[in-house]
Design brief:
By secondary structure, this protein is an alpha/beta fold. The chain folds into two domains: 2-106, 2-Layer Sandwich (Nucleotidyltransferase, domain 5); 120-290, 2-Layer Sandwich (Nucleotidyltransferase, domain 5), CATH 3.30.420. It has helices spanning 42-45, 50-70, 81-85, 89-100, 109-121, 160-167, 175-195, 209-218, 226-229, 236-248, 251-255, 268-282, 294-301, and strands spanning 2-9, 13-22, 25-35, 74-79, 105-106, 130-135, 140-146, 149-156, 203-207, 233-235, 286-290. The strands form two sheets. Strands 8-7-6-9-11-10 form a six-stranded mixed β-sheet, sandwiched between helices. The protein has a five-stranded mixed β-sheet with strand order 3-2-1-4-5, with helices on both faces. A hairpin with a 4-residue loop joins strand 6 and strand 7. The longest helix has 21 residues, at 50-70. The protein is globular, with a radius of gyration of 18 Å. This is Exopolyphosphatase. It holds the Pfam family Ppx-GppA. Residues 18-302 form the Ppx/GppA phosphatase N-terminal domain.
Length: 304
Amino acid sequence: MTRVAAIDCGTNSIRLLIADFDGDRATDVSRRMEIVRLGQGVDATGRLAPEAIERTRAALSAYKSEIDEAGVTAVRMVATSATRDAANAADFHDMVLATLGSEPEVVSGEEEARLSFAGAVRGLDAEPPFLVVDIGGGSTEFVLGDNAGVSSAISVDIGCVRMTERHLHSDPPELDELAAATADIGKAVDHALTVVPGTQARTLVGLAGSVTTVTAIALGLTSYQSERIHRARVSKEEVALVTAGLAEMTHDQRAGIGVMHPGRVDVIVAGALILRTIMEKTGLSTVLASEHDILDGIALSLLR
């Protein structure tokens, strides 16, 4: 039995997975997520805000305590979109080294995509080829592959935080804001599909909080139930209906949705727009939501 810890620090959240591996079989010991909004303002300023770094430090410090108590044998922390973009990434690096005792790996968008794919399709009972889309805060990864591995991958800068900060300023968003966001997203998705031929996929697998939240709403859940959401399928029509409904709500109305994490209230409209656009552009009729993602891929990488 091998116990490992994986940390994924993205633009919106920082997450921890502690898992036991018995050969190739994994058992979760702990999964945690904190919304820290590390990428606050990065799209506009090109820098990580000091208060965002401090929020991340506080969450990471708690994770470090849990890791030490669990007695893990290996730790890997991956940092993604926000720290790739920031001019002061060294401040983040120094904070992580002081807090965690090991360095963060600021991976490329392509490596992020491959880790997400590995975590998402492991043990997946669905028809390949798979198009895995990981809708993050700063970027979205597109990966095409099958059970043998990845055939193509790309990361594009259309995350839910980035699109919200760039376009969606009213409460609820104005029609022209939604149109501008949709056009921006559409251009990026079109570009991604010239590199990753997603129309060849038989199964669309959606990762991260925007997808799981839209799925939970489509399923009519009144509270977040991971076991109901994981590997649930939602149709293109249902995604469009949920997206339209969210776009018409005020911030307070979205906050009142039982499945909505408080840290996702202000960015869920952009996340839903990204998912809706991907489904429209690829022509795939359903999305399979997965709770297994880059965290699982990071943990798997520690066995190599």
